[in-house]
Design a protein that fits this description.
alpha+beta; Deoxyribonuclease I, Chain A; 2 domains; 7 helices; disordered N terminus; binds 2-acetamido-2-deoxy-beta-D-glucopyranose
């Protein structure tokens, strides 16, 4: 059974209440889609026929999130036979595109393609195409009323190939570029990174993937197949791979957040699932499958986002996670034609504020047993960008405070029963561009 059925069933049974845990599967596969004239990838057979077959197998096995790399000139054939409901639009064949695409049973917001700052043609033609990585906030689960949503920031990548010294330099720069992006844009969030790193722990020059592990990401292959020990001795995989302990360059990394816990349950090379009818391989890379269990935070959760993905990312999740029983004492908003700034001051004095200094300030001081339990946000367009125009907060005593200018495009949020709104996450500059609420138990 495909996992999407389980997700749908859970929502139907629970109505507006969000599921608080579940499972999902991922697959990372370099689909060897360079034009045959440039590179046959050591794969027998016709590339169009093989691409149709890869798409058929994507549909058949129904992995929840698939990352394809080298999805260049046979992309249309993969999408022709695949049936995942959410798929990225191709960025083009060689030499226009990055070859990175996502096929998923789960929706996302805020998709971006980012090009590597560094490439090397020392061996193979890495500068021929604008390779890089992609970013999306994947919606793992959400209540039908949008009050609570579980997200993970999901990255696909294809790093520089080769082992000449300029390749090694470019590849470490690539992986470090993703790490820096995560540090800025995924602060406070659960993260999944999976793709073709072109890196091996067992190659001493590949230092960057080891620093991912040192900086809080986990590799399910290391944890589940190598007993938690990062290998220093090379064991190359055959293709199809006969075991799960050999090392390939296609890798999976992940971390949890205070808002969502991820746990890797199983890792395998899914090579035997992706063979031609005569037993030949469909790609020169072994596809990687990891299955995860997710659960929403026990002391912090979040709402759906409203507004647009402009301005800089901010999140109160990490700060709030370090405070025992956070409770807003004062709400302060600034607004005018749009919403300039949102803020709460917690009862321990911690101030959480985001946005600019324009507009007029309004505030509401809450009683000791009064909680912020409901909010409404309205969005609109300014200079072609979707931004947050309006906020209205309501407390458990029925008092309200609002700021900005209401539009016709609004969303209402109520804290889950027994919970309250305690802070924010989203994107802002001079004004508030995108906003979601952080909830904590009362
Ligand atoms: C939840 O959000 C989506 C848009 O993202 C909207 O279509 C839907 O109507 C919302 N649900 C409710 C109950 O407001
Ligand atoms: C896994 O397969 C590789 C490639 O055939 C081989 O070198 C390695 O010894 C195998 N490992 C185990 C534990 O069988
Ligand atoms: C992941 O889950 C799928 C569907 O239940 C299953 O077929 C597959 O074997 C699992 N993968 C691993 C690595 O256990």
């Amino acid at each position: 059974m495909k996992s999407i059925s389980c997700i749908t069933a859970a929502l139907l049974v629970e109505g507006a209440l969000a599921a608080t845990s579940g499972k999902f599967s991922i697959l990372s596969m370099n689909v060897a889609g360079l034009p045959a004239i440039l590179n046959q990838n050591d794969v027998p057979g016709d590339k169009t026929t093989n691409a149709l077959s890869i798409g058929t197998k994507f549909a058949q096995y129904g992995f929840d999130v698939i990352h394809a790399q080298e999805d260049f000139n046979y992309h249309a054939s993969i999408y022709q036979t695949d049936n995942h409901p959410f798929r990225t639009a191709t960025s083009g064949g060689v030499p226009l595109g990055s070859g990175l695409n996502t096929l998923a049973n789960l929706d996302w917001v805020d998709f971006k393609r980012i090009k590597w700052a560094t490439c090397s043609d020392a061996s193979s033609s890495d500068c021929l195409t604008p390779k890089g990585f992609t970013f999306m906030r994947l919606v793992i689960s959400g209540s039908t009323d949008n009050t609570t949503t579980v997200y993970a920031d999901v990255y696909n990548l294809h790093a520089d190939a080769g082992t000449e010294s300029a390749d090694n330099v470019a590849r470490q720069a690539n992986i470090n570029q993703v790490a820096e992006y995560i540090a800025t844009w995924s602060k406070g969030n659960a993260v999944l990174v999976f793709g073709d790193t072109n890196s091996r722990y067992s190659r001493t020059a590949d230092t960057a993937i080891r620093s991912l592990l040192a900086n809080g990401l986990r590799d399910p292959w290391v944890d589940l197949q190598r007993g938690g020990v990062v290998p220093s001795v090379e064991t190359l995989c055959a293709n199809p791979s006969s075991n799960n302990t050999c090392e390939t360059v296609d890798k999976v990394f992940f971390r949890s957040s205070p808002l969502a816990t991820l746990q890797a349950d199983a890792f395998r090379y899914a090579s035997s699932l992706f063979l031609q009818a005569d037993g030949n391989i469909l790609s020169d890379h072994n596809p990687v499958n990891v299955n995860f269990t997710w659960s929403s935070g026990s002391s912090l959760r979040q709402s759906k986002f409203w507004g647009g993905p402009h301005g800089n990312w901010f999140s109160d999740a990490t700060t709030l996670a370090s405070i025992s029983k956070p409770k807003p004492a004062t709400l302060t908003f600034r607004g005018g034609s749009r919403l300039d700034n949102v803020g709460v001051t917690l009862k321990d004095g911690t101030a959480l504020t985001h946005g600019g200094t324009g507009g007029t300030a309004v505030s509401l001081t809450l009683g000791t047993s009064e909680y912020w339990v409901e909010a409404q946000l309205c969005q609109g367009q300014k200079d072609g960008w979707t931004r947050v125009f309006y906020i209205r907060a309501a407390t458990s005593s029925g008092r309200t405070v609002s700021s900005g200018t209401a539009t016709v495009d609004c969303m209402s949020f109520s804290a889950p029963s027994g919970w309250q709104i305690v802070g924010f996450l989203g994107q802002a500059g001079d004004e508030v561009d995108q906003l979601a609420f952080v909830y904590a138990p009362k």
